[in-house]
Amino acid sequence: MRIWIDGDACPRAVKDVVFRASARLRIPVTIVANQVMSTASSELVSAVAVTDGPDAADNHIASEVSSPDIVVTADVPLASRVVTNGAVAIDPRGHVYDETSVAERLSVRNLMEQLRDRGLVRGGPSGFGATDKKKFAGSLDRLLTKRVRDRKRGR
Known about the structure:
The protein has a single domain, classed as 3-Layer(aba) Sandwich (Rossmann fold). It has 5 helices and 6 strands; from the N terminus they run βαββαβαββαα. The protein starts with a strand and ends with a helix. The mean pLDDT is 88.
């Protein structure tokens, strides 16, 4: 099991939560971004810088991820690709993307994009705050608990 972070737009507070979970459970973490990212000072945390264009980080993660990995991303199309590969994704606000939720989330994302393109909706999500960090930490903890338990049972 590995935790992947789509690093280009991931809040520092979320990375810190992941780094603490990684240290506690001894789970490796890979941050993938379009530029060199600073990481935690841990042998469990590595970074990959990709430079092949705007979707290069997404493409790298999607090509490397497998079950039972977890991907931290706010990118719904990437989350869909991750789920197709047998993994699960979680966004920085704690929403989990799995085989039962990702199709609906992708549909809502596409609808909102169309509405914004037509000028019917403006703006984006609100700023990231302490409540979001708390929701993310709780969701990540539940995912990791389930993944670790399943791994011990040989699933």
